[in-house]
Amino acid sequence: MQLNNFISTIRLYLPSFIFISNFLLISCRQYSVKEECFHRYANSDHHQSLSEWIHRKNASHYTPIAPSYQQALLKLQMEGLTHGTQVTSGASSCNARRLRSISSDTPLRERALCNFEYVLNYNPKRIPAALTEVKCSCKRPSVGITKNHVFECEPLRYQVRVLMFDDACNTFNEHMETISLACIPVLELQARGTSDTAESFNMQPIQADIPSK
């Protein structure tokens, strides 16, 4: 009798078990693109080379993620790397005067609507240990440019794959690090009023009749 009950129970829950197993298998599956050299290269030394390459740094090149305009970054002492250190020079305060003339050679940081600085995101227990990210300097763009406060400045965040070690650097795990790579002007979540928003985009009210049933 007990055996029959056991068999009946198995038959009852077997479809659900198969469904869950297939779902987990599909969710955990790693898809490979055969054209990629990662899957075509026969040796395994590229893992070590990549790890050393993205972690390598000196006084002027200390992060694998950096602005193309390298002249904007300050040189740092390798012995004194600190999380949150500002690594750009020049004034980018909210009250700083804008350039009177802009050319194709003007750095992007000086042409941006939202002022920003580059800062160091540093964690010695991470590979790569040093990452450069953007920090917005002002809550809003210059009033002289936008003419009102409908816009505000927000960081544009990305997720980067890194390796995170324990305190003794004996074990590691895969980790997603969130960093800011830009500071962009966006519409405020709560503008001061509908009239400000409408005037900013030259919006005109349209009379609309209530639809009949």
TrEMBL record:
Listed GO CC annotations: extracellular region
Compartmental location: Secreted
Gene3D superfamilies on file: Cystine-knot cytokines
Superkingdom per UniProt: Eukaryota
UniProt keywords, alphabetically: Secreted, Signal
SUPFAM superfamilies: Cystine-knot cytokines (SSF57501)
InterPro entries reported in the protein's UniProt record: Cystine-knot_cytokine, IL-17_fam
GO molecular function: cytokine activity
Family classification: Belongs to the IL-17 family.
Protein name as it appears in the record: Uncharacterized protein
Organism expressing this protein natively: Acrobeloides nanus
